[in-house]
User: Fold this.
Amino acid sequence: MSTSPASQIAPVTPAPPAPVIFDLDGTLVDSEPNYYEAGRRLLANYGVADFSWEHHTRFIGIGTRETLEILSREFGLDAPIEELLAGKNRTYLELARARTEVFPEMRAFVERLSAAGHPMAVASGSSRAAIEAVLAGTGLDALLTTLVSAEEVAHGKPEPDVFLEAARRLGVDPADCVVLEDAAPGALAAHRAGMRCIAVPYVAGTADDPAFASAGLLFRGGQGEFTARAAYDWLGQPVRSS
Assistant:
């Protein structure tokens, strides 16, 4: 008896759910106002009275330690970096525990990924204490349990260390991972890690930054344009070879 062509076709094994790594600040949560206020208060304590929001936006996507090292040089602060770091983290944690807003579509995206079985992690330039405080305060800690702080690796963004460490802790291949980022240094770090990237610029004027050119999906309008459905639909598309 002949075998029909249909019976000779091997069954297709569905690809496992792609691991997703989230930046925290400006991507999952709108923590930048708290970081700005913590930095403003810290600098005011050392005699710097004119630290503006516009000045702060230069450092979005850069780790707290690196930011303070630059600011210390710019303003000629003579305090040790560890003292500045402790002071800013202390003030930030007070603000973060009082109020941190989760972007609604990002929460919906996390919930959708969790329901579909996607491995997830958070990789952030913030301290581990800050990451844990924000996730606990927003209820995201129930879904996001694998965390990496830039303080736990050799180099912060735009180097790929935090993302590669997140992949290691998840037990997955970096090439299978998708990163969500709001800042150019993070998008560049994702590219250097060999990971796909969904970019949601926090500062609208940065959408044309060359670092975002490598993003597989760019929401030029930032959080106002991002939707969980659009991101999830893109995530399910076949990966094109370069």
